[in-house]
């Protein structure tokens, strides 16, 4: 009856950490990372405004005469355009600034669980990407009355949420090359030309032949192919493009990890 | 586990090069439980490099760095330390309470949030975004982050830079309270009075080597200098040539003399200038001891 269990004094000196608290640390890191950017209008506004404004103008208002196919096509490509930036900027700019400002050094000195820093940024980028896709979907369905099945909408959302990852890796790599305030400019030099060259602004067939041929070099080209397949405009299988993206992600991640280990 | 004899942190023959430049040239340091060690030295002496090695941010090229007998890069070792670095731009949009909660989440047995805030004197700032705080308030928040994990060892790199006198005194009091709890502290500082007020042991570094290590009194005794100040017309340059006078100069009408034999010099002064007034004799502070120590090595190297 008197089975009162006396809690053993925590062996604080042994510095063991129960798995629940380790998980809690990962969650706290991800939560802080999301909070800090949601509260930073300088970060969130461009990410949300550019794709939605472009889509409203070119995909809905001006595409009225061309029927729903243009609206459908541009939903995919502006979706990709919108998904790239939280990956590139969320990772690249913040890493460049935090390497410069000493926050990364402090985090490395603190007992933050391994990978929590990068995992937190990754989740933040995925959430921002999902938000951009949801906004575009709402505009396509609500304003342009685009006939889109639930499966198609869901597939596009999934494409965007996972499709941000190779751009996270690319942004992380650029963030390891540059310190401080130079990063946004450098990332725009990657972001804007790459969007144009992979047919996110004008359909690829409207671009010169040479540019069409080199388009598969860009990760955004492959994500665009998958996004088009998601909304029902696919040509051929989508999975080779997914493999290509996985390859890009792995390659940039490795490069970035090597530089981080060497230069911190 | 009975480990009062085991050092909390240790550098043994630590060597660190940055390219051709030798930043640490065989440094030995031992920190014991419940002890506050101050690292003093001019810029580039190797203070930050020593701390970087102990935190596992850098790898020694030769020798060893240990925390609680473990490699500092092991997370088990770092879960027992708290850190306040010289520069750390924390996310400006996060509130102070959120930063505290995040940092506390890394530790197995952190302090309650209110206790950390009270110790660092930031109880009234918890709801404020970090970016809106003044420089001194930000430093206090960083101090709270350093102690929130109930660390057994605290690294404080120039903690009171940018603080007003009042805030500095409060931080000193908090540091004393932590040491009384049994926490060890490694403190680097430019303010010698800070080391004098707080440290049980002082290590003076210069050019990557430990010049002197010991209690504040031992360090003072090592450079047994006294400071004499008086109003007198005597020529400072002539006095400087007297035996056992280390230096003499004139500042604001007063003659200032540093000497290892105050009694003799005072007698000779009074003989030489019967008009002498306002005589003061003081034991050298850490500042004099420190300049004397680093000056000696500079002279040895020049020779």
Automatic annotation (TrEMBL), chain A:
InterPro entries in alphabetical order: ABC2_TM, ABC2_TM_bact-type, ABC_2_transport, Nod_factor_ABC_transporter
Assigned GO CC terms: ATP-binding cassette (ABC) transporter complex
Subcellular location: Cell inner membrane; Membrane
Keywords: Cell membrane, Membrane, Transmembrane, Transmembrane helix, Transport
Transmembrane segments annotated in the record for this chain: 43-63, 75-97, 118-144, 150-174, 238-257
Annotated ABC transmembrane type-2 domain residues: 38-263
Entry keyword Cell membrane: yes
Membrane protein topology class: Multi-pass membrane protein
Recorded coiled-coil stretches: none
Gene Ontology molecular-function annotations: ABC-type transporter activity
Family per record: Belongs to the ABC-2 integral membrane protein family.
UniProt protein name: Transport permease protein
Species the sequence originates in: Fulvimonas soli
Automatic annotation (TrEMBL), chain B:
Matches recorded under PROSITE patterns: ABC_TRANSPORTER_1, ABC_TRANSPORTER_2
Keyword terms of this UniProt record: ATP-binding, Nucleotide-binding, Transport
Keyword Phosphoprotein applies: no
GO MF term set: ATP binding; ATP hydrolysis activity
InterPro entries: AAA+_ATPase, ABC_transporter-like_ATP-bd, ABC_transporter-like_CS, ABC_transporter_ATP-binding, P-loop_NTPase
Domain ABC transporter: 9-232
Protein name per UniProt: ABC-2 type transport system ATP-binding protein
Organism: Fulvimonas soli
